[in-house]
Recover the amino acids of this structure.
């Protein structure tokens, strides 16, 4: 390669991602220097004199026709890390955040982590305002914290600029629309633990007992990411999943990891769930049972507080990857889960 002259609009520093049929290309840089990972597998370094249009390009590496990482079979069940024995309990959770680090875009995850940590530190300074009763000078801490938080939210966001060809844009809009449909349901939960029940008689006849927490699906970008495409984030029990055209970011406190979207398997199914909490308004009730039930389905009369429980038909969404992503969600609206399944493929 060598010197060249080109007219362009100065977009400043930040990350750019190009998606096309040929693959994914990334670039990152600051005024005067930009490094690019092309879809062909080469690395391009561009040195320029800002404002002149003069630049020097050095490109190295060849496309060695490396086999791509196969995508998980979307019809296969989620990976099981441990076999479930009778009466055993298993946590349903993803692997450690270090399993989701990728060298080629570590600059993105590092920048996001830095912004999250600065925001957390500013919150600590604001909370320290309560210590002002002990010493008047401590009243400066929350002021500094507020100023820092404003600066972090205004200038600390990581810029992700996507360029998608028409095919990739249609594909991403369809996927985003699928998550929006699922979010329209009345209730979403994350299953965080399951136990194989040995005595079904005192568990309303269910063979599997689960521990679940509410979660949320939102069409918003977190404050630490600014991008020119729609963003879906799923706020789970211990982490946040952020869906972008090429990646799924996993944010766990101040740590950030990612997985290629092509390596993510999203599978849906349905389940008959014995509901002990209030029934969501859009749930389909398909039957009922008793909290303490005999084998023939009749209530066990030995229990005075034996209440009747509804059986609801819920949708289930599994989000998994070979690198350790392992999320199981329930959604109250089974019809919307069917629509989601059609669009997310």
């Amino acid at each position: 390669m060598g010197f060249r002259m080109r007219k362009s609009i100065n977009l400043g520093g930040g990350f750019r991602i190009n998606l096309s049929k040929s693959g994914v290309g990334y670039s990152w840089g600051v005024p005067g220097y930009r490094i690019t990972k092309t879809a062909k597998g080469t690395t391009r370094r561009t040195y320029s004199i800002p404002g002149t249009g003069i630049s020097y390009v050095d490109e190295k590496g060849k496309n060695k026709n490396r086999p791509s990482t196969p995508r998980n079979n979307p019809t296969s069940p989620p990976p099981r890390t441990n076999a479930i024995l009778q009466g055993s309990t298993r946590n349903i959770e993803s692997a450690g955040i270090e399993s989701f680090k990728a060298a080629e875009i570590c600059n993105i995850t590092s920048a996001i982590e830095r912004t999250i940590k600065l925001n957390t530190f500013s919150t600590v300074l604001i909370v320290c305002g309560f210590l002002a009763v002990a010493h008047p000078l401590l009243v400066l801490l929350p002021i500094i914290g507020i100023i820092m938080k404003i600066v972090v939210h205004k200038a600390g966001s990581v810029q992700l600029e996507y360029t998608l060809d028409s095919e990739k844009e249609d594909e991403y809009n369809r996927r985003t629309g699928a998550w929006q449909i699922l979010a329209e349901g009345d209730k979403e939960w994350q299953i965080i633990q399951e136990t194989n029940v040995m005595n079904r008689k005192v568990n309303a006849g269910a063979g599997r007992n689960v521990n679940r927490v509410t979660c949320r699906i939102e069409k918003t970008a977190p404050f630490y990411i600014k991008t020119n495409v729609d963003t879906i984030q799923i706020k789970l029990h211990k982490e946040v999943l952020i869906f972008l055209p090429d990646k799924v970011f996993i944010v766990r406190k101040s740590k950030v990891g990612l997985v290629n979207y092509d390596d993510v398997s999203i599978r849906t199914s349905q389940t008959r769930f014995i509901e002990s909490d209030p029934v969501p308004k859009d749930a389909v009730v398909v039957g009922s049972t008793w909290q303490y039930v005999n084998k023939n389905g009749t209530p066990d009369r030995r229990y005075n507080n034996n209440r009747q429980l509804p059986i609801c038909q819920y949708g289930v969404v599994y989000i998994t990857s070979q690198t350790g992503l392992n999320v199981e969600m329930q959604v109250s609206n089974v019809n919307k889960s069917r629509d989601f399944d059609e669009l997310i493929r």
Remarks:
- The longest strand covers residues 308-321.
- The CA atoms of residues 122 and 145 lie 4 Å apart.
- The helical segments are 106-127, 140-155, 166-183, 334-344.
- Residues 89-104+161-344 form one domain.
